[in-house]
Design a protein that fits this description.
single chain; 108 residues; mainly alpha; 2 helices; rod-shaped; signal
């Protein structure tokens, strides 16, 4: 579930809890009971939203760090491959140069 769905569910439950509390409260203390219930529901919604925010932050960090590590690994691998190709080309050139000098008698 994404954070929007979770928030919608929390708000729906909060509204249902507030209406349920209002229906069950007695006539004399109806206003005070509704206020207290609404406050409690508000705290519950806020706590839920905070938890969703923390979870979203945690997931985003994990994704970001994974992407960074993957990019670093790819970059280092490309660097190593480039160095290996460069060394191989240099060794090939040295071998070719040495062979040509031997063939033409210019060993030096």
């Amino acid at each position: 579930m994404n954070s929007q769905k979770i928030c919608a569910i929390l708000i729906t439950f909060a509204a249902l809890a507030a209406f349920g509390a209002a229906a069950q409260s007695q006539q004399g203390s109806a206003g005070q009971g509704i206020k207290q219930d609404a406050k409690a529901v508000g705290h519950g919604v806020a706590d839920g939203a905070r938890d969703v925010g923390h979870a979203t932050k945690h997931v985003a960090k994990k994704i970001g760090h994974g992407a960074k590590e993957a990019g670093t690994g790819i970059g280092h691998g490309a660097k190593k491959a480039g160095i290996a190709v460069g060394h191989g080309a240099r060794e090939g050139w040295d071998a070719t140069k040495h062979a040509v000098k031997q063939v033409f008698g210019k060993d030096g």
